[in-house]
Amino acid sequence: MTLEKFVSELQDESQPLKHAGLLQLSSLAGEDLYEFKNAWYSLPEPRKGQIMSKLVELNEDHAEMDFTAMYRALLNDENDDVREQAAKGLWECDDRVVIRPLIGLLKKDPSARVRAAAATSLAKFTDLFQQGKILSRDGDKIRDALLEVIGEEEE
Questions:
Q1: All residues at 6 or more sequence positions from 24 whose CB lies less than 8 Å from its CB, including other chains
Q2: Residue range(s) defining the domain that contains residue 142
């Protein structure tokens, strides 16, 4: 099944999410990622949450699947559930490019669930920092953001 056909099937909420179709979303890049992002905004809101939950679940069960580009692209989605799942999906990512957006979610997202998911995904980087595997400035940014959030009364 082509990506275009699969995206069209995603529109139909009466259809179950197909495992094989979702696997096509692994390692999306370039034009395919661009097309998927454009189609994403026309999907029904409940369907978006279903898709993201399923992708995170697939990622946990199949380590070889890489939905990082999808997660990164959807960190700023309007839907709290989508942002939460996108942040959760990055828990295994060790690419420093996700540090800044995760810190942004941690510090400014209106949803406590999204902020918690961002903090959880940043935890991997704190481990890498302690092991000397990421830049000091990145580790310092993460530490400062976490300490700032911990110091806030409502958190």
A1: 1, 3, 6
A2: 94-155
